[in-house]
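Run Cytokinin riboside 5'-monophosphate phosphoribohydrolase through structure prediction, thanks.
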Amino acid sequence: MPNESSRLGSVCVYCGSSDTVEPSYLTDAHAIGESFAKAGLKLVYGGGGVGLMGAAARGAHAAGGAVLGIIPSFLRGREQPFDDVETVIVETMHERKMLMFERSDAFVVLPGGIGTLEEIVELLSWRRLDLHQKPIVFHNPGGFWDPFFALIRHTVDLGLTPPSLLNAWRAVEKAEDVTPALLNWDGEIDVAGEPATLRQLT
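Sure, done. The structure for Cytokinin riboside 5'-monophosphate phosphoribohydrolase is below.
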């Protein structure tokens, strides 16, 4: 499979919108946004100025990167758009998710709650249906996403999901490894049959 990173111009971030989280999650989100800017990658996100969303957008913006926020009008009060960046106002969550998908060449998943779960399950479902082959990288600090990965593996073990879906993403623990995971995306199948992780960069 050709190297997907050669076509990367923009990266969508799915993540939580709560400020009442482990502080390191916010610090990491800011650093990841900053790393996108330094790599010349545009950040596409849910448009909010709070939580990990706001931290990632501020990190990218402060480093001089391009940022596109997409937010439904009914969430403007709750998620407080970050007005210093380009923001598109839509009417529904469906419009938001579709526009985020269409404007992005790859996806990064940071810690998040039920909304983030909804987004990533839909993204993986579309991958399962061969509707896209875009890179997907999870930031997995302290094994945050391990229960989700175990659930997907459970559905595979019961014959409800094809094993190939386990190769649809990479997972990295450290914030500084997220952008390299995107830029070194190789699309290779992990022969061990486990969710592929970042290859050693040497």
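Residues 13-183 form a domain with the Rossmann fold fold (CATH 3.40.50.450).
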